[in-house]
Amino acid sequence: MRQRREERRERTKQLRCNVYLFLFGLLFFFFATGECKGFAAGVSTVQEIRVGLKSNYANKQSITLYNKSLELGYCNGREYFGILRLQSETGIKVTPERGQFFAAEGSFSLQKAEEAVARLKEAGAIAYTVLFSEERAGIYLPVDGNGTTAGNAYALCDAIGKKCGIIIDRNAKSRVHLLRIDTGETVLLADGEGGDYPQFAATEQNENGMFAVDLGTNRYRGRIEIGRYGGKATVTAVNVVLLEEYLYGVVPCEMPASWQMEALKAQAVCARSYALMKAGYHAETDIRRGFRMVDTVQSQVYGGISREHIRSNAAVDATKGKTLCYENRTVAGYYFAASGGHTENVEDVWGVTIPYLQGVPDTYEINPSVKPWEVTIKTEELERLLQAEEKSVGDITKVLQEVTTSSGRVYSLRIIGRLGNVGLPTDALRNVLDFSGTKFRVLEPGTVPDKVTVQGASGTKETAIHDCYVISGDGQVQSAEGLTDQYVVLSEDNLTNYPRYAPEAGEYLFAGMGSGHGVGMSQSGANGMAGKGYTYTEILEHYFTGISVR
Is the pLDDT of residue 541 over 90? Predict the structure, then answer.
């Protein structure tokens, strides 16, 4: 075992040397070519990130890893060190250990701890080897092990300790960061109290020739860390994975792999930039939480190996290392599903001014992933919503768009009733009624829903859309009457949704377009631009003002 450990350390030393050479070359490249010379303050250039697997493996009573062979190790700073290999035919099960334990005083190597545990077991005790880090191990004895009770535990531990040449600490503890690792044949413990939790790495290639950790419903590249973050009585899995391999599992989850290749490349650059800015990397595990990124829409949707696709993987590879740069620094690449014709100024959404996140026309979003939508709300439903917000105005008589941005998004409604009027943030409507976005028009009973202003040879006039004629892309002229239930009208720099029918008495109709916050790149617009021959750099330079792709 000692020989294997020495071989592993030698391989690790060589890998570390290669990593240092790579990073040196990378830094030289940045400075020598004038490329993006650094990330934002506090963001590491190390291309390995931590992703909390919140969707399926957070706050569980147990997590099972189904590989027949795994290496258990720890991360010291940014370097991973394998410690020992675990074998199992049924899966390696990790659970939170809730028992009380006596601990042997002093610090042990793994080998010394294993030898002492063997002697304790020979003396009739129940004892466990416990791992703290890549260099430190210990010995725990359960308070109730071997029939021991609180009344005679000290005497038994003293006797066992003297016989085995160790000293047992008399203070039994419930260790809130303790894990039980069960292979089906052997059990050992891991204590993350010092900030380090165990990581598991695949030791054998799967049928696709890659090393992947199998969690049953999915497999993941890189390593899986399991911990009781915050001292919870549950366990959570974290994927520690190289950035580019992480993107393999993100891009097809955030954009259909069948879309235009240049759009997929733009998506890859956005996702890479976002991850570099948001994920960070702690030198030691944060035992309170353990990660900054999750695998859901809260960060970026990440599906692991099962969601990878050859086309999206090719897009990631084609843009390897490329990020959005503003004033020579990498910046976050925000994106969303569909703009409805115009993206949004960031200050109108999140209240801060960022130069590269300014609204732009989105005229190539001709086939949005989220189609124009309508939501009908009864007056009494609005009244209940106001009561829940403690803003009741009595019987509602009118709903007005109070605050509308230049892109047509509504961020405040004015609700007028018989007892007064109040402002209502549209977030309240979105949360309760699941609006796709905030770009909409409000129609009330009696409204002529499709009346627009048109310009002709004799000037401008108001007319209903169904009385107009439209010219299709192939030059065909056709009456707009009966074409659709909704009309989408393109103005100079925007799109607007016009439903054909007004709401009935006692209702309000919200006719909207787009989906998401509207800041940054419209994914649907990017696909439209790619379909018209634009490259991924041209797409990104359109949506992010003043940036370059480096």
Answer: yes
